[in-house]
Specification:
This protein is of the alpha/beta class and 246 residues long. It folds into 2 domains: 8-130, Rossmann fold, CATH 3.40.50; 137-239, Orthogonal Bundle (Arc Repressor Mutant, subunit A), CATH 1.10.10. 40% of the residues lie in helices and 21% in strands. The protein has 8 helices and 14 strands. The strands form 4 sheets. It has a 5-stranded parallel β-sheet, sandwiched between helices. Strand 8 and strand 9 (149-152) form a beta hairpin. Helix 6 packs across helix 7 and helix 6 (170-181) crosses helix 8 (205-221). The mean pLDDT is 87.
Length: 246
């Protein structure tokens, strides 16, 4: 019988004894943990590894938990976050939640409550991900026109004029959606891969090229050209339907 993988929780807490106690309780509750006593350590770990959730102390020796969360977002690393702090001030709580934190728990806390809150955030996250087709596309996204064809994310379909509705692959949909949202500017291969597959995905440029070829062939076979979608050699691509390169 296949067992479900244990969620990995990154504990970013500079109080070593507290961090170890949290780790013990979480592992007893069926989770994996990675302790980081400094923000820099957490940032380096999360740039290379996937995590299901971060327990993030606001007051860290090298920088605040708030600034670490901002750094993660600027690096396109999105991980559900529960702030841990001894500060009960409401403005800090509001700030953390407004920044994208999923929950906020003050010290001292019961470990049973902490485990329950982690499970609650993980359930919400999983429910939200059910709507994701790729990292950058959700089933609830509105249809859009792409070079004369109507793309419908909700149904994973594309409709060419004079042709029956056709199914569209998830990655092809992700690519078209990203190009449509970034018109007129040069798009690096890395940015496109990270947007569609995720920042930690081990996807090579050759694999991306194969999907791009499939998109071009799909349009060519239905009598539509993609002249506005061009390769920028050595960098990536540009989608410039208005003919105004920025």
């Amino acid at each position: 019988m296949r067992t479900e993988p244990k969620p990995l929780i990154v504990v970013v807490e500079d109080e070593v004894e507290l961090a170890n106690l949290i780790s013990i309780h979480l592992e007893n509750a069926g989770m994996q943990t990675q302790i980081c006593n400094r923000a820099a350590h957490a940032l380096a770990f999360l740039k290379k590894n996937f995590a299901n959730l971060i327990l993030l102390d606001i007051n860290l020796p090298d920088q605040s938990g708030f600034s670490l969360l901002e750094q993660l977002k600027s690096s396109d690393i999105t991980v559900p976050t529960i702030f841990l702090t001894g500060n009960v001030d409401e403005p800090n709580k509001v700030k953390g939640l407004n920044m994208g934190g999923d929950d906020y728990i003050t010290k001292p806390f019961s470990y049973a409550e902490l485990v329950a809150r982690i499970h609650a955030v993980l359930r919400r996250t999983e429910s939200n991900r059910d709507q994701n087709v790729t990292k950058n596309v959700r089933l609830s996204d509105d249809p859009f026109d792409f070079c004369g064809a109507l793309v419908n994310p909700e149904r994973l379909e594309i409709t060419f004029p004079g042709h029956p509705v056709e199914k569209l692959g998830r990655k092809e949909l992700g690519i078209l959606s990203y190009l449509n949202a970034h018109q007129g500017g040069v798009i690096t291969r890395q940015a496109l891969i990270h947007s569609v597959w995720g920042v930690h995905a081990d996807i090579k440029s050759r694999s991306l090229d194969q999907y791009i070829v499939k998109v071009r062939e799909l349009y060519a076979a239905r009598g539509l050209n993609l002249n506005s979608f061009r390769t920028v050699h050595g960098i990536g691509y540009i989608f410039d339907p208005k003919g105004a390169v920025k």
